[in-house]
């Protein structure tokens, strides 16, 4: 069994590599593909002597030919692109964040033509491969690729399952030591879009423990989302929101926090990674990577958080743990339940069948199947999902075709872009960068984070 990692020179590749080894997948070879030979050399050095043989290539078709698993971890335009997206949004007076609002739409315009091209190459060169996407914006990317690959592409994010894990601990339920095993300890009702979802039930031994948790302000204050949203809002919703909903529920506060931080998250990550790759090109790459990765994990969402990250959160891993568990179940391992980005089907009746949502799925070698929701979707949940999903689908059209009307509609109607003047300016800038990617690289300029 062979696997390809697209964006194989990216900083987080060692996490995926080590999670696959820990999961015990019987891989004969892992091919790292990236447009940067220098970054590939650094990652190959970090991984040297650990696990199955590593091969590197800058050619997409060479990497994909006949593989069984494809892990897509691209950052089209690199971290400089992320910085521009975030800074452009802030300059226009709106929230500048990588995956939501103007930043997410701008990034999507560049990544859509690239992943559309990649999906077509996978369909041609490895039609039976499972594609596990870790590329942001996760829901949009999965939806684009699913139009070519159907259910053989599945999107991964660790944010929902990390919320479930923290809620379990606060409710007195042992969440275990693996992020990927949490849903085996409780029946979870979670639904939404990527970076826009709600934990709506947490059932243990037939009893939903969520109402009891929501009614206990002291328990809510023991974990990140409880402190972020406050017990009063959580009680009014009757659910616990994903941390990224802070950008929607506290838009003014979040915008002030970004401005007060002085530099964007993209700038922080870019500067740290430049330092790492420069130093690691010399020697001692594995040690330097471990130190840089620890700093990155600890500083995650620091612009919105108070205090340090919980040590337990750091210990159980992130999206790579979920990706490895998904790969194991897809390739004949023990079936499992995970929160994933998949086609809606009839899970949320108010959304299109082929719209990608984020929800609890049963995974086995036949694929990932969304489980029926325990509770009906509320008017608020459906309304926000519908509005943001509509913007996502228009930005997909704009990314594939370069259509300005589609791009403007996505920016102008998005709830985090509350200015028509800003929408016009941001759409035009993002389209110009999308066109530059397509022209310069033939829709193959996938640079990973």
Shape: globular
Which structural class is indicated by helix and strand composition? alpha/beta
Radius of gyration using CA atoms only: 21 Å
Q: Considering DSSP H and I runs of 4 or more, what fraction of the residues is helical?
A: 40-55%
Distance between the termini: 26 Å
What is the total tally of β strands?
A: 13
What composes the largest sheet?
Answer: 7 strands, antiparallel
Total helix count?
Answer: 20
Oligomer, anyone?
single chain
Contiguous uncertain segments of 5+ residues? 443-449
Mean pLDDT over all positions: 92
Beta-strand level of the residues, as a percent range?
5-15%
What is this structure, in a nutshell?
This protein has 449 residues and is an alpha/beta fold. The chain has helices spanning 13-23, 37-47, 60-64, 78-91, 101-125, 138-149, 159-170, 210-214, 217-220, 224-229, 231-237, 246-249, 251-261, 265-280, 285-298, 311-315, 319-330, 379-401, 404-413, 420-441; strands at residues 2-6, 29-33, 54-57, 69-72, 130-133, 153-155, 187-193, 196-204, 207-208, 240-241, 336-343, 356-364, 367-370.
Overall description:
The chain has 449 residues and is an alpha/beta fold. It contains 20 helices and 13 strands. The strands form two sheets. Strands 7, 8, 9, 10, 11, 12 and 13 form a seven-stranded antiparallel beta sheet that branches. Strands 3-2-1-4-5-6 form a six-stranded parallel beta sheet, sandwiched between helices. The protein starts with a strand and ends in an 8-residue tail after the last helix.
Layout of helices and strands:
Elements lengths: L1 E5 L6 H11 L5 E5 L3 H11 L6 E4 L2 H5 L4 E4 L5 H14 L9 H25 L4 E4 L4 H12 L3 E3 L3 H12 L16 E7 L2 E9 L2 E2 L1 H5 L2 H4 L3 H6 L1 H7 L2 E2 L4 H4 L1 H11 L3 H16 L4 H14 L12 H5 L3 H12 L5 E8 L12 E9 L2 E4 L8 H23 L2 H10 L6 H22 L8
Parallel strand pairs: 1-2, 1-4, 2-3, 4-5, 5-6
Antiparallel strand pairs: 7-8, 7-12, 8-9, 8-10, 11-12, 12-13
